[in-house]
Amino acid sequence: MAKVKTAISIQEDLLAEIDSIARKKRVPRSSLFEKAVRDFLEVRKNRQMLQQLNAVYSKPPTAEEKRFLAAVSNEAKKLAEGE
């Protein structure tokens, strides 16, 4: 994927820390920023997915879902008992 240049403003102490890490790891500063942004976006995506799952599973099961779960449970018991 093509890379583009951009300019950002950042606090001096944060930049100094990033530069120190980049030197120790022997990677370009831009690679650290890129990784940080990718990690941030991944965490954000995972949080959104978790919120969606929590919203779905926080609702009580419908009557139809309860019947289905009971039927599946009964079939599992039969299989476990060797019927």
Can you characterise this structure?
This protein is mainly alpha-helical and 83 residues long. It has one domain. The protein is 75% helix and 0% strand. It contains three helices and no strands. It has helices at 12-25, 29-57, 63-81. The chain starts with 11 loop residues before the first helix and ends with a helix. The mean pLDDT is 94.
What key phrases describe this protein's structure?
83 residues; 75% helix; elongated
Head-to-tail CA distance between termini: 58 Å
Listing every helix as H and every strand as E from the N terminus to the C terminus, the arrangement reads HHH
Average pLDDT over all residues: 94
Oligomer: single chain
- The proportion of strand residues reads under 5%
Number of helices: 3
A few lines on this structure:
The chain has 83 residues and is an all-alpha fold.
How do the helices and strands line up, and which of them pair or pack?
Elements: H1 12-25, H2 29-57, H3 63-81
